[in-house]
Amino acid sequence: MIDATSAIMAGVTIAALQRQSLLDGLDYRVLLCHALDLNRIALITQSERELSAGEAQRFAALVRRRLDGEPIAYIVGQREFFGLPFEVGSAVLIPRPDTELLVELTLDRLPLNGRALDMGTGSGAIAVSLAHTRRDADVTALDVSADALAVARRNADTNHARVTFLQSDWYAALQGAAPFDVIASNPPYIASGDQHLSEGDLRYEPVGALTDHADGLSALRIIIAGAPPHLKPQGWLLMEHGYDQAQAVRALLTAAGYAEVRSWQDLAGIERVSGGKLPG
């Protein structure tokens, strides 16, 4: 049965529908492409196409979910990151453009035939991007969540990336493993009680991947303290963190004896990644 909204939409052209849409332009295009199984070019070239009752019903259902606040990426089940398609769902965070900085910094420090570790991989966005870009590299990815690792493995397969996945509570599964040239991580760094956890897309994302349920630095402390045995001499540790945490993370790295400690800004000019090198 078609609800009232769908009935009104049925027979309306794509162009007319866009004019009356309650969504912003980008959301409208993404959801309509998904509902009609069209790419963006086809949507433009078929602007005078009329929606059938079934198409209108599918689109109306997607619009309701978006207007209720559900993230676009979860509705369509995919998000692009580092130029690659990634499956996403409620088991993993939505990859964000800010994290591409972490990938770029890791690539810059990864030698030929080097070894890289992605800690808390989630959807696999970091590890898969590294392995896809650097076919020579040996990339390992860890996550404590079996559900997240299942998503990450599918993303590696989809993007033809060679990644070793391990279920692990931080470094636990790495005993006896060869050290790495670079360890990269985008860990939970939002402090418990932060208002952002109840706003926007974050309301729908896995809370354990967002917050450490403490001061926002506890996971970063664990990573910093545990990295040295798993890094090669002069290997790099690189971590994404919150917009106001750079100074605190640099202090933790310095206190732990890392060299060349610094932070890097994202495209918005925010210090988004901090890291340091293990002394030789």
In short:
Methylates the class 1 translation termination release factors RF1/PrfA and RF2/PrfB on the glutamine residue of the universally conserved GGQ motif. The protein is an alpha/beta fold and 280 residues long. The chain is 36% helix and 19% strand.
Uncertain runs are none
Tell me the radius of gyration.
Answer: 21 Å
At CATH level 3, the topology of the largest domain is Rossmann fold
Name the shape in a single word: elongated
Largest sheet: 7 strands, mixed
Structural class: alpha/beta
- Compute the separation of the termini in Å: 69 Å
Number of helices: 11
EC number: 2.1.1.297
Enzyme class: transferase
GO molecular function, one term: peptide chain release factor N(5)-glutamine methyltransferase activity
Keywords: Methyltransferase, S-adenosyl-L-methionine, Transferase
Report on the structure:
With 280 residues, the protein is of the alpha/beta class. The chain has two domains: 4-68, no CATH class; 90-277, Rossmann fold (3-Layer(aba) Sandwich), CATH 3.40.50.150. Helix content is 36%, strand content 19%. The protein contains eleven helices and nine strands. The chain has helices spanning 4-9, 14-20, 25-36, 40-45, 53-67, 72-76, 100-109, 125-133, 146-158, 218-226, 246-255; strands spanning 78-81, 84-87, 115-119, 138-143, 163-167, 180-185, 231-240, 259-265, 271-277. The strands form two sheets. The chain has a seven-stranded mixed β-sheet, sandwiched between helices. It has a two-stranded antiparallel ribbon with strand order 1-2. A hairpin with a 2-residue loop joins strand 1 and strand 2. The protein is elongated and about 70 Å long. 37% of the residues are buried.
